[in-house]
Design a protein that fits this description.
This protein is mostly helical. It has one domain. The protein contains ten helices and no strands.
Length: 224
């Protein structure tokens, strides 16, 4: 495979592709679909834990979770779980529908963030921290692409974003930015770590998800 074909294979995708495992409903479960969902969410959690262990700045929601751990003594996994459940409760007035993927998102990502922070060593070397961040962003992108294409329901944060968008008419991007900035500021005041890693995540996570959605689309299109 030459350089041109590699670059072409990494071209970001503009939409969420239909795959052989895409569900017809939020509770349309099969062994393959469930396995891909769980694997994607686990990879997502491990990627997020690498961002934490890099020590140079977390993703906005993890800044919030870390700040909560500092104020309450909870583990990062439990803090993430509690935040996710709390955000999902916001769905009630927003009329968002909970799917199997929503519940799985809350439990599995929190669990694998906790597992990852045990497996991966905390870094005090800046260069290795940057490498951890870049690998973490890639894993979060891959995990997102896999769980989103299962079609079993949005995660709590995505559901809050789309629900507010539908209720207010404010553009999705602006809603997401407002939410992310709000939780980042709250987490920072609580003592969460903000730094280069936070900026790297903000700059590259969208492209990471889009690139892996493209890879999934190109690898599976002949089977759909």
């Amino acid at each position: 495979m030459n350089l041109a074909s590699i670059i072409k294979s990494l071209r970001p995708h503009k939409t969420v592709p239909i795959t052989p495992w895409t569900a017809q409903g939020l509770w349309d479960l099969t062994p393959l679909r469930t396995a891909i969902l769980f694997f994607g969410l686990a990879i997502f959690g491990l990627g997020d834990s690498l961002l934490i262990q890099a020590g140079i700045g977390n993703a906005p929601w993890t800044v919030f979770a870390e700040g909560l751990t500092l104020k309450t003594g909870l583990s990062i996994g439990w803090a993430t779980f509690i935040i996710s459940v709390s955000v999902m409760l916001l769905w009630i007035p927003l009329n968002e529908r909970v799917g199997f993927g929503t519940i799985s998102n809350i439990v599995i990502i929190a669990a694998f963030i906790q597992i990852g922070t045990i497996i991966f060593p905390k870094q005090d070397n800046f260069a290795i921290g940057v490498i951890f961040d870049l690998i973490g962003i890639a894993l979060v992108g891959l995990g997102s692409a896999l769980y989103i294409t299962c079609g079993l329901g949005r995660g709590p944060r995505d559901g809050a974003m789309t629900g507010i968008h539908y209720k207010t008419g404010v553009r999705v991007g602006r809603v997401r930015m407002g939410i992310e900035v709000t939780v980042l500021i709250i987490g920072w005041f609580l003592g969460g770590t903000v730094g280069l890693g936070t900026a790297l995540f903000a700059l590259f996570i969208g492209q990471s998800v889009a690139i892996f959605l493209g890879l999934v689309a190109r690898l599976t299109h002949k089977y759909v």
